[in-house]
Design a protein that fits this description.
single chain, about 140 residues, mainly beta, seven-stranded mixed beta sheet
Length: about 140
């Protein structure tokens, strides 16, 4: 995973920050549906912060085929979603590499605080994680 400065430092109502997720299939089999899923915990803010309102964050994924940014799911919750509830994902052949581009923006009325973005790699055909999740540092002020 790659972003400027190694973490996301967002400002409510400010510009989006881009990051990439690189998937490498070093396994002995192809994946038919490998999904990148992103989640972070609910932000509670710091003492003295203004309480946010509204949706909080906007995550988009770059669609190479159309050359445009499209909405992507960012789950904001303090619990894990059951792996059997995930669907979709794209193919990744044995030995292949795929790079996905994302950008995250904090909306003007959203919360402030700090919580890492958990990036999971899910084989939706087998309802299991294909690799250990990674954390992307994040704060919103």
């Amino acid at each position: 995973m790659e972003t400027r400065g190694g973490r996301l430092a967002l400002v409510r109502g400010g510009p989006a920050q881009e990051f990439t997720v690189t998937l490498r299939n070093g396994n002995s089999a192809d994946y038919r549906h490998l999904l990148v899923a992103l989640q972070m915990e609910i932000l509670v803010g710091e003492p003295g912060d203004e309480t946010g309102s509204g949706p909080g964050f906007l995550l988009e994924r770059f669609d190479r085929a159309s050359g445009t940014w499209r909405p992507a799911e960012l789950r904001v919750a303090n619990d894990a979603k059951a792996l059997s509830l995930f669907t979709g994902g794209g193919p990744l052949a044995r030995g292949a590499v795929r790079i996905e581009r994302y950008r995250l923006r904090a909306t003007a009325g959203g919360p402030t605080g700090s919580s890492p973005v958990v990036v999971s790699f899910i084989d939706t055909d087998a309802d299991r994680e294909a690799a250990a999740h990674v954390l992307l540092g994040h704060s919103t002020g």
